Amino acid sequence: MSAQLFVNATVFTPDPVAGIDVLVSGAVITAIGPGLRAVGATSVDCTGRMIAPLFAGPVAVGGPATFAIVPFGELETIVLWPSRNLTLVSGGTVVPAVDTAPGPSTSPHLGTWIDATGFIHQHLTADGRYDETRGGRRHAYRGAFRIDGDRIVYRDDLGFWAYGRFDGGVLHHGGYTFTRKDS
Question: What is the DSSP-derived secondary structure letter of residue 13?
Fold first, then answer.
């Protein structure tokens, strides 16, 4: 995976700093600072936008390259009402938007996935929808999903986004490890 350089951003911290560049190599943030250069890196202009962490820790060197790029002043909308103005980066990969209207899926990853404790059951269905059971409570979370290769992007009906990655017969999502029920 090639490096990506997100330039001229405001990085969300307790004291946001403008004009900062963020260099991503693979799934890790490798440098943060003004005026960064990286030979061969793809450059993404973030002028007027803020880079904010997404559930995976702060935007920091050595941290996961999982963050949102939102127009400055719209940070509070990414959880409540995401829009097409939102760019998501998950594990260093720019993620395509997931429409609220699901589409059909023929992915080999469809089916029921259960976390290691058996507490969470996630059902991925061919109509592009997921339905999550938590602690026996059915329909705890529901929404649309899109699978692209080994990546899955969720957009919950409540409006929040989540991300995961398939690795062999395992789904890594939200700090959990899931295996398919029928495996």
Answer: S
Angle at CA of residue 19, ends 14 and 22, nearest 5°? 80
User: Where do the structural domains in the chain lie, given as residue ranges?
Assistant: 4-95, 111-180
| Structure-token match 């998950």, residue found | 90
**Residue of 18, 28, 33 lying closest to 67 (CA atoms):** 28
Provide the CATH number for the domain formed by 4-95 in this structure.
2.30.40.10
| pLDDT score of 14 more than 70 | no
Q: Are strands 42-45 and 4-11 parallel, antiparallel or unpaired?
A: parallel
pLDDT value, residue 24: 93
pLDDT of 77 over the 70 cut: no
pLDDT, mean of residues 113-119: 96
> What average pLDDT does range 109-134 have in this prediction?
95
**Per CATH, domain 111-180 is 2.40.128.290:** yes
SS (H, E, C) 50-82: EEEECCCCCCCCCCECCEEEEECCCCCHHHHCC
Q: Which whole-number Å values give the CA distances from 82 to 73, 86, 99, in the listed order? A: 13, 7, 10
Answer yes or no: pTM beyond 0.85: no
